[in-house]
Design goal:
Helix content is 34%, strand content 19%. By secondary structure, it is of the alpha+beta class. Strands 1-7-4-9-3-2 form a six-stranded antiparallel beta sheet.
Length: 303
């Protein structure tokens, strides 16, 4: 005989699946509406989009991308790195995030991710108008904390996500390379569900580690990846730290957002400061939640 708890769980499951289906249908309709209005791409940019669709990731470099604001990006990053902590503030701290005030002082870091070429790539891959969440500038410490983003996971916030990782120091197998599992292996990992994070042992039961891709490279290495469609993690550094910036993009109607990420890492007031001299297109990407008199509010999700 069914008890009330079982009925409640069943109803919640039906409600979640119904909400996800509704969101999926809405997303695919928006993709269809936008399909004839996507910005044109160069052959090089099309290669990046094609790799994201097929593999889930694309590895290149700042030098190969040759974007106008790269020199300013590196100058600002160098100033910030000089004052970053060399060691964790407490035993369990595994990562340090640069605060928004330092990014505002070096606004080229924020503006680098808003360049039209990157927005064109993001819009073509996402298939819908782009929301730009800005950069997350972080140092990953080598202190044996196998936790959170160092475990295998997929990000659940939207139907497609685009992140661009930029290494600021040389990254080898021992200082925390970004790692991912190519998209075509997803069917082998389909039973990994019911929670957000998975250990090496749990993933290895379904897929041999020889198929995991480790993105090593010198400072200036760039990784484009879809954090929703591929299992990924930042490998735990064991010898030395890793410095990197992650630029984040999704649709303007995401499925849900982690409660500690909503309006992060910048407040609306800080975004106004950062956006004083940008184009109308860029402003739409920055202030993506605004729709006339109404504001979009996604479902907030606790960790």
């Amino acid at each position: 005989m069914l008890n009330s708890n079982m009925i409640d769980r069943g109803l919640r499951k039906v409600a979640r699946e119904s909400s996800l289906l509704q969101s999926s249908l809405s997303y695919h309709w928006r993709v269809f509406q936008k399909s004839k209005k996507l910005p044109p791409l160069s052959a090089t940019n099309q290669c990046i989009v094609d790799a994201l669709r097929k593999e889930g990731a694309f590895i290149t470099s700042l030098e190969a991308l040759s974007l106008p604001l790269t020199e300013k990006l590196l100058e600002g990053a160098k100033l910030i790195l000089a004052n970053n902590p060399k060691a964790p503030a407490f035993e369990t701290q595994y990562v340090y995030h640069v605060d928004s005030a330092k990014i505002i002082e070096n606004s080229e870091i924020f503006l680098w991710g808003l360049q039209d070429r990157l927005l064109d790539i993001a819009e073509n891959y996402l298939g819908v108008p782009v929301a730009y969440r800005g950069p997350l500038f972080q140092k990953d410490f080598a202190n044996e904390q196998q936790v959170l983003t160092r475990l295998w996971h997929k990000d659940p916030e939207d139907h497609r996500l685009l992140k661009i990782a930029v290494y600021l120091n040389d990254v080898n197998a021992e200082n925390g390379p970004f790692e991912y599992i190519p998209k075509h292996f997803n069917s082998k990992l389909s039973s990994l569900k019911g929670k957000l994070l998975f250990s090496d042992a749990e993933v290895a039961k379904h897929l041999d580690p020889s198929n995991w891709v480790s993105c090593t490279g010198v400072a200036g290495t760039v990784v484009f990846f879809d954090s929703h469609h591929v299992f990924h993690r930042g490998k735990m550094p064991v010898k030395s730290h890793r410095d990197a910036i992650f630029f984040n993009y999704h649709s303007r109607k995401p499925i849900k957002v982690f409660s500690d990420h909503w309006n992060a890492p910048f407040s609306p007031e800080e975004l106004l400061v950062l956006s004083k001299a940008i184009s109308p297109r860029q402003k739409e990407c920055v202030f993506w939640w605004e729709k006339g008199a109404k504001s979009f509010q996604p479902k907030l999700m606790a960790r």
